Amino acid sequence: MDPAELTERLRAGDTRALARAITLVESGHRAAGAVLKAFRGGKKSKVVGLTGSPGSGKSTLTDRLIEEARKRGEQVAVLAVDPSSPFTGGAILGDRIRMMRHHQDAGVYIRSLASRGALGGLAGAAVGALALLEAFGFERIFVETVGVGQSEVDIARVADTTVLVLTPASGDAVQAFKAGVMEIADLFVVNKFDLPGGERVVQELKITLEIAPARPGGWKPPVLSVVATKGDGVAGLFEGLEAHHAHLIKHNLLEAHRLERARFQVESVIQEWGRRRTLAGKDLVALVAAGELTPEEAAGRLLKQTAHEPGF
Amino acid sequence: MDPAELTERLRAGDTRALARAITLVESGHRAAGAVLKAFRGGKKSKVVGLTGSPGSGKSTLTDRLIEEARKRGEQVAVLAVDPSSPFTGGAILGDRIRMMRHHQDAGVYIRSLASRGALGGLAGAAVGALALLEAFGFERIFVETVGVGQSEVDIARVADTTVLVLTPASGDAVQAFKAGVMEIADLFVVNKFDLPGGERVVQELKITLEIAPARPGGWKPPVLSVVATKGDGVAGLFEGLEAHHAHLIKHNLLEAHRLERARFQVESVIQEWGRRRTLAGKDLVALVAAGELTPEEAAGRLLKQTAHEPGF
Q1: pLDDT tens-digit profile of A210-249?
Q2: CATH architecture assigned to A41-251
Q3: What pTM did the predictor assign?
Q4: Domain ranges of chain B
Q5: ipTM score over 0.90, yes or no
Q6: Using CB atoms and an 8 Å cut-off, which of residues 180-239 of chain A contact chain B?
Q7: Looking at the partner chain, which of B85, B119, B278 has a beta carbon nearest the beta carbon of A263?
């Protein structure tokens, strides 16, 4: 299928074409750019990122949030992002199956993203997939990431609203701290609140947030407690998402956020380009190792070489 | 002081000149490149990276390893790298003071690195500082990082031998897993082994490592237990470091590692350049946000613009 035909079918609301287009983006196919440019617009989606440790119950929570969004009549998409570590790779499959029950619902589209083929890396691919889902008309997009590392922080940056899911398990909050995720979350959710220590974690978080730097527009991240398996507190969380979105609009932050997302996308392309070029530029790297060139000089040469190549 | 004079003083073994040169690298000063090129060579240092959660006792362990290296007559440098999160910034100061007792020893040089001024980011600055310390003649360099995030993984890549420090505290090993640090460590150390659960963590790690992918040259990462506060097991750990270094030489991996370090350095420069250029290139980013340009096209334009600028 050529980009023009694919775009036509996307405009017609064909979900198989959507799956195909996301795969193009995921694999870094040349045609992806043409499709992304041709198929755009429509209403803006509300993009909610969910991050947290494996075992924090993110997927069960996402499942509940889908329910909640559907009750309100929203068309919902879920983008499950897996950085495919050699250790954690494939972990997401079980989660996808758990969310399968929504697969019967035409108003719900679930997709996982695992490849690193795209020039902008996985985060870049996520932004591309997000643009497609938005143009396709989903009013709500949940981006779920596995783990709490840098790549998760990066991916969270593409969401309008970021939710950090924690549990009463000891050290969870402390770890989130260290990973720098505390700074980026707009809402904190203590899931499995019915386990021992739930109230303690909530209090710890609240104290920590009091000394945290102010957020844009004076937003104060709430700490919410839920029991996703039972659905307790999920409606309250959904209202929290809406409140944050209203805050973004009121303070004119949504547009700034979209610009930051685009900036991040361009930066991701450059990063991945740098990774590939330094892998290919063995001669220049050897000169750096031998002390004949500084890293800056080698980087400058790679830049100049590439600038003269057609097609970039 | 101009680069030539600084280099002269470095060659004369002036540690104040060394401190000055590292500051140039840290702040991304233009003169840093000239000094790095002029002041090189000498023997290769054995570079050992230590990483692990705050509270794992890395600094106390590093202190013990300094002792051990000094017993063997080695000249030792410590590079303490702090990514300066708004939350963790400054945490390293206490650690430095703890290591202060070695400051009286002319065979020990301790330096922390915190700025992000260098074009290659913090990791790039660490590589630059490492090159200076090596040229200065230190036979052993310990690179200590705070936390277990991506930047720590990156920084660990610059070491010849990477040690992951864990404790019997619940969840520590699991967190290391998630952060992808398990894959990069050459030796695993369970510190505070005298606390409850020490043996269990050692066994868990051993089981996990059995299913881990093979390491270059067939290296099997050992799991060692120590009590750094008492010095128990530190001599054994030092022998483990030596064994890994011998393995690298035997399998001709040291050179490959140096090349990987240089590659990483060039990549870091490109990453930081991308971060700065996309921050400055607001017009291009706005075109991406508006869908007029793909991220790849915007990245290409930034590349072409920069390639024509003098000095890069």
Answers
A1: 877 778 899 999 999 999 999 999 999 999 999 999 999 9
A2: 3-Layer(aba) Sandwich (3.40)
A3: 0.69
A4: 1-40, 41-251, 265-307
A5: no
A6: 180, 182-183, 213
A7: B278
